[in-house]
Predict the 3D structure of the following.
Amino acid sequence: MNIFKPAILAACGFLTVLAASAQAPGGGEGPPPSPVRVDRVISTEIVPTVPITGTLFSRNDMQITAAVDGQLTYVAEPGTAVKAGDVVATIDTRPLQLQLEELEAQARRASSQLDYLEKQVERERNLVTRNSTAATQLEQTLSNRDIAASDLAIARSRIQQTQDQLNRSSIKAGFDGVVTARVHREGETVGRGTVLGRMTDTESLEVRVLAPLHHAGRVRVNDELRLFGFESSFTGIVRSVVPPVDSRTQAMELRIDLPPEARFVWSLGQLVSVAVPLRSAKDTLAVNRDALILRQDGTYVYRVRDDGTAERVAVQTGESSGEFVAVSGELGEGDQVVVRGGETLSDGQAVSVIDVTAS
């Protein structure tokens, strides 16, 4: 009888259990699960876009023009920051002041003449009732009185016109902004409507882009479009769609409002790219682009099973929007796919989810 046979059989059984334990997912003696970060498969609207170059403009831009004739006494120099209502240019008011004094004197004379004729009318009416004067004399006096009243009204109207010109001799800013150009300087005599300079609002910015007319049905007012500049991007809202004024251009103008924070990064005149949609949106399954693994044998993702193992799933990619890419394959909405740590995984390997990326 071989007394060592039972011991040998027991040892072999222990080794078999140990090997099975080492091969089981999550087994205490096997390789530890690979830590991974996952994200969920979502159903979303994927819209393919094409970048079109646009330019940053100010929503508020105005010419500084003279409202009256005269000699300039002040014009703000370029770079001057102004608030709405601040004076940006002034014209010498001395000629208008003299004109106003003359008109006021004429008004006083017309008023005095009117008072005299009013009293004269009363006297002649009394004389007519006593037959002491002719009725034609009264009619003449009444006519003179009416003429005096008209002269007074004209004088007062001219006083108001001159006062309005005095008020317009100071040109004020219509909004907060910066003076960007000065065409005329102090001492020059200018006429009404002469351009003196220019000012721009540097806070309220918009992107203007000419888009081909075949995009007309795909972009509407209040749509959100992605805007890309040097090392930065923002989401803008389409404020208006301007149809072409010339059919030869075959392009419409999109005016897109920028968020307030964009003015700290982008500046007037800068060129940016606008992601204009190529077609209407449609729902499709999409994954975070970091989940895609590209190999010579195809493109696939690793889905995390309920038992904590990774399953390799082949997919076909489609259009992209931001960080998401449309996919087709054996996936469902809500499935967890690996977005970090999938490059070294193999099918059936145990994984440990350390974080879920917020979609």
Remarks:
- Residues 1-28 have pLDDT under 50 and may be disordered.
- The chain has three helices and 23 strands.
